[in-house]
Design brief:
six-stranded parallel sheet, single chain, globular, Aminoacid_DH-like_N_sf, Shikimate dehydrogenase, shikimate 3-dehydrogenase (NADP+) activity, 264 residues
C-alpha cells in the first residue's frame, strides 16, 4: 500500500521511554491508511520528568488527533486527560488518547487485548487459576480483564507492595474472583502471564521460575518480540503460549477503532 504523506496528514504519536521496541508506528499507520485516513503514527521518546511539558506542547499542535501511551507513562497520563472511560478510571491507567472538540479522552485496552490473545490461542479462562507478574499500567489492566473474563483466582506478583495491595483490594471489591499476592512460583496455576517489561532487554531474568511450568499451563507475555526468553522457556516446557505480538495485534485493532471513531 502506498503511503499518503503530505501537508494534510494527521499525526498520532506513541509515547514511551524506551520507545525503540514499539510496533505501533508501522502497524497503526497501516491501519489508518487502510481505513482511508491520511494519518501516520510516530514514535516519541519522552522521559517521565518531561512528560507533562511534552503533552502541553502536543496540545498546541493543530494536526495531532491522538496518542498511544506505553511504558512507563500509562498511569501518569490519566492525569493529563480531560476525560477517561470507566475502565480507565477504575484502573487509573490509559494506553490511548483521542483528541476531539471536547478535549482529550483516554481509554485502556491492554487488558482486553491480552484476554483476546489468550482466547484466540486456545486458552480457557472461565473458572481457572491465574497468576501474573506486574501491576503497572498494563498489568493492572490485564488483572482486571482476567477477573472480568471469569478466572476463579488471580495471584499478583509485584515488587511494589503498596501498588500490588491497592490493586488486589480494588479487584476483590468486585466480588468476582479471589485475588491475592503471589510469588515467583507458578506451580498449581492454569494461566501464567508476564505483564512486566522483563524480556525487553537481553539478559533480563524470567518473571517466574520457568522450571515450574508444566504442559497443562497456558503462558502469556506482553513483550512484543516473537519469542522472548520467557516464551521460549514456556514452549520448551510444553506449554501453549500467547506472545506479546499476539497481544499487540489485538490492541492495535482496538486502538485503531477508538482513534478513528467518527472518522470512518
Amino acid at each position: 500500500m502506498k503511503l499518503t504523506l503530505n501537508g494534510s496528514t494527521r499525526l498520532y504519536f506513541v509515547v514511551g521511554d524506551p520507545i525503540a521496541q514499539v510496533k505501533s508506528p508501522e502497524g497503526m499507520t497501516a491501519a489508518f491508511q487502510a481505513a482511508g485516513i491520511n494519518g501516520v503514527c510516530l514514535p516519541a521518546h519522552v522521559a517521565p520528568e518531561d512528560l507533562e511539558d511534552w503533552a502541553a506542547g502536543i496540545r498546541r499542535m493543530k494536526n495531532v488527533d491522538g496518542l498511544m501511551v506505553t511504558v512507563p507513562h500509562k498511569i501518569a497520563f490519566t492525569g493529563l486527560c480531560d476525560s477517561i472511560s470507566d475502565t480507565a478510571r477504575f484502573l487509573n491507567t490509559v494506553n490511548v488518547v483521542r483528541f476531539d472538540g471536547s478535549g482529550w479522552h483516554g481509554d485502556m485496552f491492554d487488558g482486553r487485548a491480552q484476554v483476546e490473545a489468550l482466547l484466540k490461542n486456545g486458552a480457557v479462562l472461565q473458572g481457572k487459576k491465574a497468576i501474573q507478574a506486574g501491576a503497572g499500567g498494563a498489568g493492572t489492566a490485564i488483572a482486571h480483564a482476567l477477573v472480568m473474563a471469569g478466572v476463579s483466582e488471580l495471584a499478583v506478583v509485584e515488587t511494589d507492595a503498596p501498588r500490588r495491595d491497592s490493586l488486589i483490594e480494588r479487584l476483590n471489591s468486585l466480588g468476582r474472583a479471589k485475588v491475592y499476592a503471589g510469588t515467583s512460583d507458578p506451580g498449581g496455576f492454569d494461566i501464567v502471564v508476564n505483564a512486566t517489561p522483563m524480556g525487553m532487554k537481553e539478559g533480563d531474568p524470567l518473571p517466574f521460575d520457568g522450571d515450574r511450568l508444566t504442559p497443562q499451563m497456558f503462558v502469556g507475555d506482553v513483550v512484543t518480540y516473537p519469542d522472548t526468553a520467557w516464551i521460549a522457556k514456556a514452549k520448551a516446557q510444553g506449554c501453549r503460549t500467547a506472545t506479546g505480538l499476539d497481544m499487540y495485534a489485538a490492541v492495535r485493532d482496538l486502538m485503531a477503532a477508538f482513534l478513528l471513531e467518527g472518522k470512518v
